[in-house]
Amino acid sequence: MADKPTIYIETTIPSFLTARPSGDLIAAGEQETTRQWWETRRGEFALFVSDLVLAEAARGDETAAQKRTETLKDLPVLAADDEVDALAAAILKSGIIPQKAAADAAHVAIATRHGMNILMTWNCKHIANAVLLHCLAEVVSREGYRLPVVCTPRELMGGPENDA
Q1: Which label site among 43, 48, 146, 161 has the fewest CB atoms less than 10 Å from its CB?
Q2: How do the domains of the chain map onto residue ranges?
């Protein structure tokens, strides 16, 4: 797909990237990490989104939505297709991700079906959750796919050139 490692950018990334600084120290730190990664490391990767990400980014406050969508406007869009739908359905049927979080299952399915190397997210409840990831890997493997590495921007801040 690309010479660089591929990353599916889930909606929390542009949300954290463009939001006003949070008063919550942890959230503010995650926002700053996202900004630093975007400014210093994103060029090392081929970034992708989906129509689902674009739709979610366009919701809510008009000014905030405009900032999010502007950030994503030049990124290639991965299509949702019958394979994505079937994989998302299998994930939901497994119960690992609840029905009320069907969009989260769709993000995993899109990134997985399109063979992304990495799915980047701050959604640690249903996606970047160490308790759930091995179960998700088993489900997608049964469906004939390989789960991408799922991580936050923090986990992609380092690299061989940064080692002491």
Answers
A1: 161
A2: 6-154
Vertex 99: Cα angle to 98 and 101 (nearest 5): 70
Q: How far is CA 134 from CA 127, 137, 141, in A?
A: 11, 5, 10
**Among 129, 157, 148, 126, residue whose Cα is nearest residue 30:** 157
Cβ proximity of 84 and 8 under 8 Å: no
- Is the whole-model pTM more than 0.90? yes
User: Is the pLDDT confidence value at 163 over 60?
Assistant: no
Task: Examine the pLDDT at 108 and tell me if it is beyond 50.
Answer: yes
Q: What is the CATH number of domain 6-154?
A: 3.40.50.1010
- The position carrying tokens 């990134």 is 111
